[in-house]
């Protein structure tokens, strides 16, 4: 199908807008010779970038619009006020089956609301979730954490749904099967955690869709022990932001240490490339491409501060999910074996 | 009072036991000429260390016992089986008013159970909490996070109690008054969060004991914006462990980057002191000395893997709280102005 070769990109989202998103999209296009792009955004900003980068115009459609949803816009009003925005235009491409997936670095709350509104939840899925990518430093691979903020509280059957969906998406993205799935908890012992987590553990351990490995603690999420880590949306949101905050704090401390000692200052020319390396490689949030899962269409959320490489990674995530037809995969698993309450 | 010059130390707890805890305690004693120590633990291990460090025996009492609570012991059975342990002996010194505070690097769950059992909760306090120290990299100061694991769920009045107690302890430890207090949440906007957090926000904003600054997100906890950050025990436990995990992951990544490139390998002799600096300064968990607050006595929990400097810092925390008579301070605030439901 043609739609599966087409990805809709909201080029206006994120801290840098078209100057980053357009070149990133062209990078991906050059790696995938059959890929076509729909670029939603301000044509007066997009066209010069296509020109400058000598883009293959045969494979690019520009959907012009003036409206942009900013990171400060309240998600609540977005369904009324955001209809003409680049974000809505991109999602509508998926809704109308003109594109196989959409990618945006815009306002997460707005993307979630618009995605649910336009694409609807997969039958049998209680709640959609946002799945974040976590770097595994030991192996250079990735783990996946969900939900990181589509929800606040979740029931044990919702957590079970996250585990099943997460395992399918993780297998698509990483190739690993069966996935090792864990529940994020305040201890590894089987007696630990809330009633919801205890009930979810019972459901997960009885499921054949994945390998349930039990509870995992906060300090283990980067260890690679689990491919998929499941928690409610509030806990996941705190987790992903705390890890970003800890990394930023550590970088600041490295810089303080360097500027404090003459010894390091003297060698700062040696250290500087190392730190630019670290900036690229280490920040968990840079392992870019959070996926909204549970919707009848593929929506990938890039971080707002993603650079060209980061944004192109988010588009690569979308391509993998298109190739595996992830929403259909989730729908057929849920239809074959619904969650029993 | 004599008891206020005496600190009881469980020297058997932690990854390294007396070889770290005894020299650390002696370091603190040398800085505080009137301080007396009660060292609870195996005398056959303590005595040679006192000898080797030429300790002032006039100011040291050794409470000999053979029993130790290990980190693997289940807290549940501890009230029966742990009675003769070094941890119980240390807490009993506070209970019997023979010491002004106790310090242990042992099993947190056991310390909490034994502390509550022996010392009892301050009247008017619904639930005790564990307060952790968070480094603020920008200023080199500290913030405090509670609860990090004494509880699982908490009600809004319990969170309010944590805020009031936390502000009093933080003022004792940092000297800052009034304290800026924030609630950890999934967003800064006033509409964000669970019903419990929303209700807690109303109580906090009406309280005159501290300056309530609103919600704080996970990435802001190291920023120094708040002196005291309040959350339920489950969220706090995840937060403190995720930040430790993120820092460990980043260190591992730095080491990978160095070993990967000939350029860095060549200069590794320059880099190595920097990394030993980082190991000491950056790890959030090294900012040592979590306090069990809300009990009728001072109990400071050192991290199990604290080194000599780290463990001595935990003892310094205890001294500060003795000097300010923190449990009495909390009791009088609670009696003067009980939490209204």
UniProtKB/TrEMBL annotation, chains A, B:
One of its GO terms (cellular component) is cytoplasm. Catalyzes the reversible formation of acyl-phosphate (acyl-PO(4)) from acyl-[acyl-carrier-protein] (acyl-ACP). This enzyme utilizes acyl-ACP as fatty acyl donor, but not acyl-CoA. Its EC number is 2.3.1.274. It is an enzyme of class 2 (transferase). Gene3D superfamilies: Isopropylmalate Dehydrogenase. PANTHER family: FATTY ACID/PHOSPHOLIPID SYNTHESIS PROTEIN PLSX, PHOSPHATE ACYLTRANSFERASE. The keyword Ubl conjugation does not apply. It catalyses: a fatty acyl-[ACP] + phosphate = an acyl phosphate + holo-[ACP]. One of its GO terms (biological process) is phospholipid biosynthetic process. It is found in: Cytoplasm. Belongs to the PlsX family. InterPro entries: FA_synthesis, Phospholipid_synth_PlsX-like. It comes from Pseudohongiella nitratireducens. The gene is plsX. GO terms for molecular function: phosphate:acyl-[acyl carrier protein] acyltransferase activity. Homodimer. Probably interacts with PlsY. It comes from the Bacteria. This is Phosphate acyltransferase. Pathway: Lipid metabolism; phospholipid metabolism. Keywords: Acyltransferase, Cytoplasm, Lipid biosynthesis, Lipid metabolism, Phospholipid biosynthesis, Phospholipid metabolism, Transferase. HAMAP family: PlsX. The keyword Ribonucleoprotein does not apply.
């Amino acid at each position: 199908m043609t739609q599966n070769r087409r990805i809709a990109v909201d080029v206006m989202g994120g801290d840098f807008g078209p100057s980053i998103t357009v070149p990133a999209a062209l990078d991906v296009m050059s790696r995938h010779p059959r890929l076509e792009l729909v670029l939603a955004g301000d044509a007066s900003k997009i066209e010069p970038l296509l020109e400058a980068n000598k883009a293959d115009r045969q494979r690019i459609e520009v959907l012009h619009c003036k409206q942009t949803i900013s990171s400060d816009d309240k998600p609540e009003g977005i369904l009324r006020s955001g209809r003409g925005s680049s974000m809505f235009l991109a999602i509508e491409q998926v809704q109308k089956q003109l594109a196989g997936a959409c990618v945006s670095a815009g306002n997460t709350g707005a993307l979630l609301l618009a995605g649910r509104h336009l694409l609807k939840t997969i039958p049998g899925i209680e709640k959609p979730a946002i799945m974040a990518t976590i770097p595994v430093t030991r192996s250079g691979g990735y783990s996946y954490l969900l939900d990181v903020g589509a929800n606040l509280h979740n029931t044990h059957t919702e957590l079970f749904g996250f585990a099943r969906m997460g395992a399918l998406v993780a297998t698509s993205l990483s190739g690993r099967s069966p996935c090792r799935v864990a529940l994020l908890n305040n201890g590894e012992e089987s007696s630990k955690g809330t009633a919801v987590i205890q009930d979810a553990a019972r459901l997960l351990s009885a499921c054949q869709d994945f390998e349930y490995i039990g509870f995992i603690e906060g300090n283990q999420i980067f260890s690679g022990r689990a491919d998929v880590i499941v928690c409610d949306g509030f806990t996941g949101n705190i987790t992903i932001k705390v890890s970003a905050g800890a990394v930023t704090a550590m970088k600041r401390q490295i810089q303080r240490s360097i500027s404090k000692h003459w010894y390091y200052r003297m060698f700062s020319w040696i250290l500087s490339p190392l730190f630019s390396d670290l900036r690229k490689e280490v920040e968990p949030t840079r392992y870019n491409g959070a996926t909204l899962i549970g919707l009848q269409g593929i929506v990938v959320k890039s971080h707002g501060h993603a650079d060209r490489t980061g944004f192109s990674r988010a588009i690569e995530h979308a391509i993998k999910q298109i190739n595996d037809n992830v929403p259909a995969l989730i729908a057929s698993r849920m239809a074959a074996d619904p969650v029993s309450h």
